Amino acid sequence: ELFSPMPQIIRSALAARLREIPELKRFLDDFREATGLPLRFLPLTENPTLPEEPVGFCQRLHADAAGVRLCHAFRLRMREEAASGPVMQACEAGLWEIFVPVNASGICLG
């Protein structure tokens, strides 16, 4: 099951605290600096939307409503599959996404 019995408010609070961990922030920043690729923590409680700073091709794809729908459906599928382990797949546009679950005490937070 994608969501455990943990109440949504607690899951959201844990995800918010996770985002504030300096080591996680540093890891995300270091990864972007080293690779030039965006990496972010996406809580299960959030809608898997386009990153704040999408790559150029994704910006063009999202300029059209059909592109937005395709991307959103793909990210929802990826998030569901990643609840049980890492997933790497190409989206409909041929770009690769990797989703890796972040677990705390056996509960998937994002």
Structure write-up:
This protein is globular. It has four helices and four strands. Strands 1-2 form a two-stranded antiparallel ribbon. Strands 3-4 form a two-stranded antiparallel ribbon. 45% of the residues lie in helices and 11% in strands. The model has no long low-confidence stretch (mean pLDDT 79). The chain has helices at residues 8-19, 22-35, 56-61, 65-82; strands at 87-90, 96-99, 103-104, 107-108. A hairpin with a 2-residue loop joins strand 3 (103-104) and strand 4. With 110 residues, it is mostly helical.
Keywords:
single chain; 110 residues; mainly alpha; two-stranded antiparallel ribbon; 11% strand; globular
Outline the secondary-structure elements:
Layout: H1 8-19, H2 22-35, H3 56-61, H4 65-82, E1 87-90, E2 96-99, E3 103-104, E4 107-108
Antiparallel strand pairs: 1-2, 3-4
Structural class: mainly alpha
- Describe the sheet with the most strands: 2 strands, antiparallel
SSE arrangement, N to C: HHHHEEEE
Counted by DSSP, the helix tally is 4
- Residue windows where pLDDT falls under 50 for at least 5 positions: none
Nearest-integer average pLDDT? 79
Count of DSSP E strands? 4
Q: Report the radius of gyration as a whole number of Å.
A: 14 Å
Distance between the termini: 14 Å
Strands of the widest sheet, in order across it, are 1-2
